[in-house]
Amino acid sequence: MLLLASKELPRVKPYNGLVILEDGTIATKDFAGSRPGNVLEKSEQMPSHLVVLEPDSLEMLDEIELSEPSIARISSVANDIYVAGDRTLMRVRFRGKLELDSEFLPLYKTTESQGSAWDVVVGDSSAWFLDNGDDSYRYNGTLIGVGTLSSEVRLFRVDLVSGQVTSGRISDLSKGVVANPPLVDFERRIAVGYDSGNGIVTAFDFDDLGNMTQRWSRSQNHGGHMVYLRDEGLVVSDDYDLERNIAQMVILEIESGDEVVRVDTGSPVQSVLFPAVGFNHDLYLCTFSTISRIAFCD
């Protein structure tokens, strides 16, 4: 492996968001939340720092301090970058320079009992995300039961034109926690969210205005990023068997929530990471201990 370029970023912190913009520029952002061994009070969190890099040399083209701390990974459409802060959804435009869109700061956090949002899914002129991500640093081999917040996890939708915010509750349970984004099928108009702390997965139908109606809900200890097999209408999710201490991959029908297949992955810890689609009807699931390949057989 040949090193082509290296760049020391401005802050001595993890940079947990990384996207390639339409012009090839790389954008990344630092992580503002608590980490194991480095627990921060809200008052200690700094506003996050966003930078853009030239893709070949990694020369820093511009940088900007955002208006809020952010624990979420970043998302982008063309050369617009979306960052979920601890209160609002921020949009930063890159046109040779980074500029925060001060006219687009839709507020999703309306009570102090809510936690900060995680990653944003963008499509069909809307942005979708789950809140209550602050306690994800308490992961101890699983996210089950690690939440401390008094509010329930909510799935949010923000209209990228009007800034209108709508939401739906994953369940009525408090002490929820997430560490990943929801899954949204813009054609079927179904969005799937979850609460990893309480082991609930819930799907919603949504209309043109983003109003949500619960479609189905099931008990399942999902913690990682979901993969969507759109043509088949299947959701690749995970489950953690607490009795056997084993992570499982579970495929669900998005329309009904019915389980199609379940298989052990061999991992003794719960996945809170991103799986990947393989090249021959297979999937790769990564946890902090194990990489598992799951193949589809006729």
Notes on the structure:
The protein has no helices and 23 strands. A hairpin with a 2-residue loop joins strand 5 and strand 6.
Helix fraction, binned, reads under 10%
**What is the topology, as strand order, of the major beta sheet?**
1-2-3-4
What is the CA-atom radius of gyration, in angstroms?
19 Å
The total beta strand count reads: 23
What is the average of the pLDDT values? 95
- Give the C-level CATH assignment of the domain at 1-105: Mainly Beta
Which topology of the domain at 1-105 does CATH recognise? Lipocalin
Low-confidence stretches: none
CATH hierarchy: architecture of the domain at 1-105: Beta Barrel
Strand percentage, roughly? 35-45%
Question: For the report, how would you describe the main beta sheet?
Answer: 4 strands, antiparallel
Helix/strand layout:
Blueprint: E1 15-20, E2 26-30, E3 49-53, E4 60-65, E5 75-77, E6 80-84, E7 89-94, E8 98-100, E9 121-123, E10 126-130, E11 154-159, E12 165-169, E13 183-185, E14 190-195, E15 200-206, E16 212-219, E17 227-229, E18 234-241, E19 246-253, E20 259-264, E21 276-277, E22 282-286, E23 291-295
Antiparallel strand pairs: 1-2, 2-3, 3-4, 5-6, 6-7, 7-8, 9-10, 10-11, 11-12, 13-14, 14-15, 15-16, 17-18, 18-19, 19-20, 21-22, 22-23
